[in-house]
């Protein structure tokens, strides 16, 4: 029997790290959000919840918030629909399973800036791959679309983002599928199950834990999404691409006029934290199931 | 009409020839057991019958209809897997009714059939439990229940008892025999356990290296194995094979000499091969201090209560297992006087063929 003191001894370093690098900074974030502070100097002025009141009335914040939600739900919808679709296809016994995994995962090992540059070429209105292809198949009207115009740029970015993230979640889901014993599917084959039956009645329930963790990872990624839309906007990120992460960065570190507003930026950070935390709790609560044994 | 027929079946995995010219015909209501050592092709044959593996050449017929090119679901067979393959997230009732659910059968019909199957298998009290709350034997019954509700033309069992402990295995073996009688269904059963094969089968198919060595009723195979492999495979502890020093045919008698002794047997009928080896089953020996044929040295003694197993060494150095009725007092190093009484003679020619088959 391990003594309580020994347990304490082993747990203390982990708790200390968690405390120092997570709980205290989180507490400080909330604390700083109650100040009007540039982040430099000592002239921080306590203003209570004024930063939050200001956020409530800040159209750019709401634009960023809406974009983040769109990214989270619309992007998430397509990421998982595609990831599940590819899971069904790759798991159906087609040739080249490993090759397809590699191909789908590749965007995740390439620098975000390089990916953005590639998509900039794809979306280029004159010589871009998309419009050239559309014109080549006779869709001339659609082939003249300005994909990076203010009206379209967010959705164009989202499509590219879905392409990048689908591979990552496909790998997670496939890892879950791989642990399902093959005779489960064989038994289903004998019972007359088609691809959809096998996916819905066997794969989904049996990778439920992997799906839960995938959704949680997506929520975390989506709420703090920064680098891809930022790089997509190149030097001057248009407001249509603002996410909460980008707006936080711009208010805290990127805007010189008026001066850096770290207090305001940390209030955005707190909103992000609350949003992510509530969604994660919700997802975990909704997806709670008994542990499977097989 | 035969319930099942395999005609010149071949299966290759790349270079590996898993099934070689398999010909098998199963009558309706028959319980056939495919038996053989690991890698002999018995499970592959079963999987080709189920449609889970494609055949390289040959034809499979169920009820006279060729099913070679059909999908598993179109063959009307049900299979019980070694691992049971129960869906852990479904209750017992959902597991049993899964096939009917995806076939969109009415709920009332599903419930009725699931309950009927559960009653046959005595699992009606567990219908709302998940598989993890069941014992190994109960899981096995659920897997069988899933097969029963489909009322298939053929039941396939892939080593269904191998995950159970010894006592439960005996119990389930009896249950399966009872079930076969009750359902009067055609069953094909794979096992590497020869006791299961001997006790359950109407006919046993002994396989080795992708070929069928012999097909026949359990006792026919035991008493008149076609070759050394079948003779050695059936029987526990297994028979031993001793090289003959010579043989002599005297009218209707055959006398064979080995290990410094000779045994007198009736001459085999219609056999042309030259005897070169004798097979001795453990129960071919009797204790006879007066007039022994052999006096091998005892190495290990196993007292089983009703019988005694003696692991001995013959004068020519070969090991022989001797099974004597009752509790024989012997210890390691003793020489034990034995008489040989070949209940069903096993004499093999150079090619390993049994002259008495």
Description of the molecule:
- The complex is a heterodimer of chains A (294) and B (357).
- By secondary structure, chain A is mostly helical.
- The model of chain A has no long low-confidence stretch (mean pLDDT 88).
- In chain A, strands 1-2 form a two-stranded antiparallel ribbon.
- Chain A has a single domain, classed as MetI-like fold.
- Chain A is built from 13 helices and 2 strands, in the order αββαααααααααααα.
- Chain A has helices at 4-32, 50-56, 59-90, 97-105, 112-123, 129-136, 153-178, 182-191, 195-206, 208-223, 227-232, 244-254, 262-286, and strands spanning 35-36, 45-46.
- The longest helix of chain B is centred in the middle third of the chain and has 18 residues, at 166-183.
- Chain B is an alpha+beta fold.
- In chain B, helix 2 packs across helix 3 (107-120) and helix 3 packs across helix 4.
- Chain B contains 8 helices and 21 strands.
- In chain B, the strands form 6 sheets. A 6-stranded mixed β-sheet of chain B has the order 6-7-8-3-9-10, with helices on both faces. A 4-stranded antiparallel β-sheet of chain B has the order 2-1-4-5, with helices on one face. Chain B has a 3-stranded antiparallel β-sheet with strand order 11-15-21.
- The radius of gyration of chain B is 24 Å and the shape is globular.
- Chain B has helices at 42-50, 92-102, 107-120, 136-148, 166-183, 194-200, 218-223, 228-233; strands spanning 4-13, 16-26, 31-35, 57-62, 65-66, 77-80, 154-158, 186-191, 203-208, 211-216, 240-243, 246-250, 253-258, 261-266, 277-280, 285-287, 297-303, 307-313, 319-325, 338-340, 347-348.
- In chain B, 24% of the residues lie in helices and 32% in strands.
- Chain B has 2 domains: 4-233, P-loop containing nucleotide triphosphate hydrolases (Rossmann fold); 240-348, Nucleic acid-binding proteins (OB fold (Dihydrolipoamide Acetyltransferase, E2P)).
- The chains are: A mainly alpha (294), B alpha+beta (357).
- The interface between A and B is medium-sized, with 22 and 26 residues.
